[in-house]
């Protein structure tokens, strides 16, 4: 299958103007479905993971990270013979442990199969447009296909339009197995560090395995469980909540101050919704004499203790998921930098959670 990627920008590469018959739709169009951004309409079409009303409420690093639309997806069905996208990035990729595809990539999946990625280059800046024609279907008989575009994990992106050949029809995507999303709150691992591209975060993989919607509220280095974030998570009407924010607390003492109150905030608003508490996954530092090893173990113990108290008090919709069952000491090859999963690690995490979710959410 030939994939033609056309970069439309002021670069030294030869550019090809998209065919003039392309019809462009804004992402606010009713023909396109935006998933993973609960406040999308409230935010006037901006791809923020938190509502604008919290801009001056949450800490500045949290708001900055909220501008990266990790977990956001554009979904639709179309019989298009030509697909295109226009995007703009505020700055170039700049991370040491994630390359440009993982940090800035917008992944195209067709009928659940990965095809290609739009990515920023070293010259990305405001005003520089990237226009890519994803010409995978030319010459084929028209047939309806399910399209998913996974947006960037670690860099803000503006999607200025999705393009279709003028003869294309566009319809809503097939429904998910459940109408309400699963909400994930946590750390850089939750946000997607260090997947090779946006479709390889563990939530994205899990979503494809189970056909479920999700919201990613992972905030790199800043998922510490503060009260304003507990309220933001609770504001989302979800099918379940997954909490994995312990490691961003530097000590077990700081975790103890926020963990039980965070759960209480969720339970006050959602007394019957399933809540999964994930203990820290394995860190390579635990194989050495690093003092982090003891702190991580204390955090695991505290999470088990708080959830056990909830269950003993009669709350049967709590479960602990042991992070080391998802990615443990025998799976060090699933880590990038000793801490963050790579694609293999995220695949293992998604597969481990899938069996739990099938039972927890009664999925067929």
What would you say this structure looks like, in words?
By secondary structure, this protein is an alpha/beta fold. The chain has two domains: 22-36 and 71-171, Sandwich (Jelly Rolls), CATH 2.60.120; 182-360, Rossmann fold (3-Layer(aba) Sandwich). 26% of the residues lie in helices and 21% in strands. It is built from nine helices and 15 strands. Strands 2, 3, 5, 6, 8 and 10 form a six-stranded antiparallel sheet that branches. Helix 4 packs across helix 9, helix 5 runs parallel beside helix 6 (252-269) and helix 6 (252-269) packs parallel to helix 7. The radius of gyration is 21 Å and the shape is globular. 45% of the residues are buried.
Main attributes?
single chain; 364 residues; alpha/beta; Jelly Rolls; Rossmann fold; 2 domains; six-stranded antiparallel β-sheet; 26% helix; globular
Alpha-carbon Rg, integer: 21 Å
State mean pLDDT (0 to 100 scale): 92
Low-confidence stretches: 1-17
Sketch the major β-sheet. 6 strands, antiparallel
- Would you tell me the structural class of the helices and strands? alpha/beta
CATH architecture of the largest domain: 3-Layer(aba) Sandwich
**Number of beta-strand segments:** 15
Termini gap: 33 Å
Assembly of the depicted chains? single chain
Amount of beta strand: 15-25%
User: What's the number of structural domains?
Assistant: 2
CATH homologous superfamily identity of the largest domain: SGNH hydrolase
């Amino acid at each position: 299958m030939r994939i033609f990627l056309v970069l439309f920008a002021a670069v030294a590469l030869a550019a090809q103007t998209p065919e003039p018959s392309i019809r462009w739709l804004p992402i606010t169009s009713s023909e396109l479905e935006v998933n993973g951004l609960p406040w999308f309409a409230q935010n006037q079409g901006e791809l923020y993971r938190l509502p604008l009303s919290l801009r001056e409420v949450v800490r500045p690093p949290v708001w900055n990270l909220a501008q990266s639309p990790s977990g956001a997806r554009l979904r639709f069905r179309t019989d298009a013979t030509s697909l295109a996208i226009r995007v703009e990035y505020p700055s170039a990729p700049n991370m040491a442990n994630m390359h440009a595809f993982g940090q800035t990539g917008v992944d195209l999946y067709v009928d659940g199969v990965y095809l290609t990625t739009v990515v920023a280059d070293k010259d990305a800046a405001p005003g520089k447009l990237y226009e890519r024609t994803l010409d995978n279907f030319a010459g084929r008989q028209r047939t309806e296909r399910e399209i998913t575009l996974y947006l960037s994990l670690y860099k803000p992106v503006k999607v200025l339009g999705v393009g279709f050949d003028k003869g294309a029809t566009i319809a809503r995507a097939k429904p998910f197995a459940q109408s309400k999303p699963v909400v994930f709150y946590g750390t850089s691992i939750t946000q997607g560090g260090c997947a090779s591209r946006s479709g390889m975060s563990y939530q994205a993989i899990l979503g494809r395995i189970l056909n479920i919607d999700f919201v990613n509220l992972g905030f790199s280095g800043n998922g510490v469980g503060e009260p304003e974030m507990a309220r933001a998570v609770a504001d989302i009407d979800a099918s379940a909540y997954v909490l994995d924010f312990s490691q961003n607390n530097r000590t077990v003492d700081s975790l103890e101050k926020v963990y039980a109150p965070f759960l209480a905030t969720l339970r006050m608003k959602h007394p019957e919704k399933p809540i999964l508490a994930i203990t820290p996954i394995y860190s390579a530092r635990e194989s050495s004499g690093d003092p982090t090893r003891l702190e991580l173990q204390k955090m695991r113990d505290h999470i088990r203790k708080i959830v056990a108290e909830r269950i003993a008090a009669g709350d049967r919709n709590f479960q602990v998921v042991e992070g080391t069952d998802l990615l443990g000491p025998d799976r060090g090859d699933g880590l990038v930098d000793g801490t963050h999963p790579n694609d293999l690690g995220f695949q293992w995490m998604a597969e481990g959670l899938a069996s739990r979710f099938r039972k927890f959410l009664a999925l067929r």
